[in-house]
Amino acid sequence: MEVIAPEAAGGPPAGLQTRQARALWHAAMAALALMPLGMAVAHRSSPVFAALAALLALAAVAAEGRLAEFGRAARGALASPLGLSALAFLAWCVLSLGWSEFRLVSVSALGEFGISVAAAFVLALTLPARMTRPAFWLLVACSVVACVTTIFELRTGLALRRSLGMRWHSFIFNRPVLTLLCLLPPVAAFMLRGMRHGWMPGLAFAGLVFAAMAHSESGASVLGFAAGAVTFLAALAAPRLVAGAAAVAFTVLTAAAPFLGPIADRAIPASVHRKLAADHSRDRVDIWISFGEVIRHQPFAGAGFGVSPRMRDTAVAGRVPSEGETLLGVGHPHNALIQIWAELGAVGAVLALAAILLLLRTIARQERPIAAASLALLGSATAVALVGHGAWQGWWAAALGAAIVWILAVRRMQRETGA
Questions:
Q1: Residue 367 has pLDDT above 70, yes or no
Q2: In this predicted model, what pLDDT tens digit does every residue of 298-348 receive, in sequence order?
Q3: Half-sphere exposure of 69 (CA within 13 A, CB side)
Q4: If you ran DSSP here, which 8-state letter would residue 100 be given?
Q5: pLDDT of res. 5
């Protein structure tokens, strides 16, 4: 994706307009950098930071008199093969509202997801070319404070939150640590490429993020950390090979998703489930089996975008065995690919796979450190998405979108410095 360069369109404006635009750009960077700290305080707030940063960036573009240029850049990005595949998938999501039995639920889910996606798209086109090193250091500082806050709160039984009368359930820190997981690859890439002996602070930062994860209840974040670390190291050595392997893996996983429950039921021994009892591994397999039944009964189009929270109340639930019907009420299948199949059917699954494969092709063409960071983000996010939360939650889309923007900013810095 090409971004709007500061020097394009005849140079910057003059006088007061210049100062206003510069202030808006810095405010947009700050809003995006504050996201991890904001999530540690309010665990669903990442869409607010992403949307605010996007609005500030658009205001800066308008102050520079470059909205027409932004429009051309947006059309160009959407007309690319990756852009067209993403639009096709989103169009199918919208079309699925027509057969959703709970249209308001679907519209609400699409709105939550769409706001974060739109904000990420705007930021990806505008902010990377303007991002500064101080903005990166603000992101690092906010992430460190978020890690320390998370560790302190969880080690003290959330004493501070209790004293302030805030929500004090420990699981609310799962989303903040998953946000930190998303931001780890771009921060690591920035330190490796922008600092002398950057691997040392990068390793220290990764260790602090892992410590926050280890203190949390999010087993998915630890799994994602391991997947991201292995992918990053492998991609540093052979990015194209890793991208090719990922393409094969996504194709297999997408094809197998409707049958994942029965496969896992046969493949995972009871002893493993006992060891992973705290992470509810047995429950997840049973949930996958139940949603697999839904897919079997409506394989082509699915139940409609975002219907999973009400899947137990849909007509197809009546054709699922009674024990499986109960598990349809858990909110979502805890597997993004199964959720896509259940809500959008085979058409949605194929369109999603096409977008992922085109994304992998784009990543494989990037410079080695950028490709490694991008593949690490994709690897860690995939590991989480295969066992974790709902696919369309706005906070997750905003965190992933922010990570992509920071990676694009690192790519721009690397190209400018020739590092």
A1: yes
A2: 999 999 999 999 999 999 888 877 666 667 877 789 899 999 999 999 999
A3: 20
A4: -
A5: 63
Range of the domain at 395: 16-256+335-417
Number of domains in the chain: 1
In a domain, 286, yes or no: no
Tokens 């003290």, residue located: 156
Q: pLDDT, tens digit, for every residue of 141-155?
A: 999 999 999 999 988
Do the domain assignments include residue 152? yes
Residues ≥6 apart with Cβ < 8 Å to 208 = 144, 147, 148
Cα distance between residue 204 and residue 29, in whole Å: 24
Do you know the residue count of the chain? 419
Residue carrying the six token digits 């904000």: 119
- Whole-structure pTM value: 0.92
Q: Are 310 and 106 in contact (CB under 8 A)?
A: no
Quick one: tokens of 129? 């070319």
Q: How many helices (H) and strands (E) does the chain have?
A: 19, 0
* Best CA proximity match to 317, nearest among 304, 326, 305: 326
Q: Is residue 55 part of a domain?
A: yes
Question: Residue 106 is which amino acid?
Answer: S
